[in-house]
Design a protein that fits this description.
Helix content: 55-70%
Low-confidence stretches: 158-162
Largest sheet: none
Radius of gyration: 17 Å
Shape: globular
Number of helices: 7
Strand content: under 5%
Amino acid sequence: MDSRAILAELPRLRRYARALVGDRAAADDLVQDTLERAWSRFAQWRPDSNLRAWLLTIMHHLRADQLRRRPPPFTAGDVREDDMPSRPTQTDRLELAELAAAIAQLPEEQRAVLLLVALEEMPYAEIAGTLAIPIGTVMSRLSRARDHLRRILDGRAGNTCLRVVQ
């Protein structure tokens, strides 16, 4: 494993970790733990495989372990303004804050898939391998995440299609 190749992946790892965790310090810790685990399991990496996918798989497993131990709260206030790219208009900042808050409301499984597709631009097959789920599950979670996000942003998150009939 070439250390320059790992260094080239650091920005993507940090960006995904920040979007996934929401807190800068916790995201940096997750990246550090990912790199530590990758280094200790260097023998498991196949040189003909995708390094980014392998590192993201490690990160995903570490994040799942963290959630099993203690579910951390994720709030929109954890996303700092300088973490998100934006134009200098106030409405854009408000829209980004609203989007970050909406993404934070998604279930962890949906948020992970949505971020890997939208933020990391990974293909579905690579996401399926990274998260160790079938490709159909990736597509299903992405569809549900987009629908849920759409309902949240439209202000209908709590509403359902069912009506009470007397």
